[in-house]
Amino acid sequence: MIIEIKEWLTEAAGYIRVRLTNKLTVSQKSGRTDLVTNIDEEIQSFFIKKINQHYPNDRILAEEKGFNTIDSFAGRVWIIDPIDGTMNFVMEQENFCIMIAVYEEGVGQLGFIYDVMKEELYWGGKNYGVFLNDRKLPQPKDVALSEGLIGMNAYMYRKNIYSAGEIGHASMGIRVSGCAGVELIAMLKGNHIGYISNLSPWDYAAGLVLINEFGFKYSNIEGEPLAFDKREYFLAATPTAYTQIQEKFIHK
């Protein structure tokens, strides 16, 4: 399965890089900053076709075209974000990712985050560890909030939602990429100590598998398990920073 998924990701990323030279068809979903392109839909259809061919009994949860709800996490479920960071994709043509996760009975088994323009694949899972392409990554240090950078949703920071502004000020600084995949990669590399945002399941499913392997803590912002069925405020951080954020800012 891992080899197959890697091949699919390589093919999909190559297709995206070629199609970037053509004019994109861009549509709005909930508003002018919530975009979807023809490439998002084509890449999702590509993965769904592959899964249906090779694993016809599996369920699929994905962002676009009517796949954004699921009735059960029983058995094996694939969670797909065909292009995470669509605004970046449209406006910058970089800083976007493809993300795929494989869950069994509600437990993450495999996660893949592919930075398309850098051609960097972060992947791993239970009993595998975490890899950048073919290189196994070392576990990041358990750094305190005051000693590290934290990725953050810009609106949450600006409006101080769930004390996001205060949390940012207590850290060494915030970083805003506009892409959950890029932010989760920064945690895997040890560049950021955490990430606070407002995310849907396809935004975090693959990343959770990977950060879990490295012992990061994660939940909704109030410390409850993620629902996987709606958009919700998300917190992931090193164990030390997570505890500090919960105790000093969320449940103060």
Describe this structure as you would to a colleague.
With 252 residues, this protein is of the alpha+beta class. It is 35% helix and 31% strand. It has a 7-stranded mixed sheet, with helices on both faces. A 5-stranded mixed sheet has the order 11-10-12-14-13, with helices on both faces. Strands 1-2 form a two-stranded antiparallel sheet. The longest helix has 18 residues, at 2-19. It is globular, with a radius of gyration of 17 Å.
Q: What is this entry, summarized?
A:
The protein is of the alpha+beta class. It contains eight helices and 14 strands. Helix 1 (about 1-20) runs antiparallel to helix 2 and helix 6 packs parallel to helix 7.
Uncertain runs are: none
The number of helical runs is 8
Fraction of residues in helix: 25-40%
User: What string gives the helices and strands in order?
Assistant: HEEHEEHEEEEEEHHEHEHEEH
Distance between the termini: 45 Å
Main sheet makeup: 7 strands, mixed
Strand content: 25-35%
Number of strands: 14
Shape: globular
Radius of gyration, whole Å: 17 Å
Describe the structure using short key phrases.
252 residues, seven-stranded mixed β-sheet, 35% helix, globular
Topology:
Blueprint: H1 2-19, E1 26-31, E2 34-37, H2 38-54, E3 59-62, E4 76-84, H3 86-91, E5 97-104, E6 107-115, E7 120-125, E8 129-132, E9 135-136, E10 149-152, H4 154-159, H5 164-170, E11 173-175, H6 180-188, E12 192-199, H7 201-213, E13 217-220, E14 232-237, H8 239-250
